[in-house]
Amino acid sequence: MDNSGKLLSDNQLGEIAIKGHSLMSGYVGKNPEYTFTKDGWYLTGDLGWKINGQLYIAGRKSDVIIRSGVNYYAHDIENELNDLEGLRQGGIVCFGVTDDEIGTERIIIWVEIHLSRKAGKYELENEINNRVFKRFGFKPDRIEIFHKRVIPKTSSGKIRRFHCKDIYLKNQRT
User: Fold this and answer.
1) CA dihedral angle for residue 30, residue 31, residue 32, residue 36, rounded to 10 degrees
2) 39 has a pLDDT exceeding 60
3) Backbone angles phi, psi at 32, to 5 degrees
4) What is the CATH number of domain 63-173?
5) The whole model's pTM is what?
6) In this structure, are strands 142-146 and 104-113 parallel, antiparallel, or unpaired?
C-alpha cells in the first residue's frame, strides 16, 4: 500500500497491509486510526512488495533512513560493517536523526568493541567511514564507539533501534 492508502501492483515497494475476519481490533493504548485504514486494512509497519502473488519483506518502515531524498535501510549499513575486526556480535546499530537545519536525516552509527581489539578508535572510525562511503556514497555523520554493551535489545536479542535513537536525542539535549 502506498502512503495514500492505494493498493500497489507487483514489483512496487509499499507498506504491508493485511485484512481478515480474525484480525485483532488494535493494540491496547494505541489509537486504531493510526494502524487501520478507513477500508479496514491493518498497517503492519513493514515494507515489502509482491511478485506473482508472493510477498517479499524489505524491512521495517521505521528503519528507513532518508538522506538527501534517498532511502537507506539501517540493516544494510549494519551488515556492511559486521565483519570488522574486534566488534561484538550484534554490537552495531545504525539510525537516522532528523536535522531540520539541513532538511534531511543525519546517519548515526554505534558500535560495541571487545577490549582486546588491537586497532584504536581512530582506525576503526576510518574503517567504518571507508566501508560506508565505498558501498553507499556517504560517510556517517557520527560514529560512537563503546567498550561495553550499551545497545538496548529485546528479550529475544533484537536491537531496539528506536530506543537507541531516543537515548541519542536525549543525550544531545543535555
Assistant:
1) -100
2) yes
3) -65, -20
4) 3.30.300.30
5) 0.78
6) parallel
Tell me the average pLDDT across 69-90. 91
pLDDT score of 86: 85
| 93: Cβ contacts below 8 Å, ≥ 6 apart | 74, 78, 109, 110, 151, 159, 161, 164
DSSP tag of 69: T
> For 8-17, b where at least 16 C-beta lie within 10 A, e where not — what string?
eeeeeebbbb
Provide φ and ψ at 171, rounded to 5°. Answer: -70, -30
Q: What is the longest distance spanned by two Cα atoms in the chain?
A: 57
- Residue ranges of the chain that CATH labels 3.30.300.30: 63-173
DSSP code per residue over 144-168: EEESS--S-B-TTS-B-HHHHHHHH
Torsion angle of the four alpha carbons 58, 4, 32, 54, in this order, in degrees rounded to the nearest 10: -30
DSSP characters for 79-105? HHHTT-TTEEEEEEEEEEEEETTTTEE
> Residue 174 and residue 12: Cα distance in Å, rounded?
42
Residue written as cell 588491537?
Answer: 118
- Cα 32 from chain centre: 24
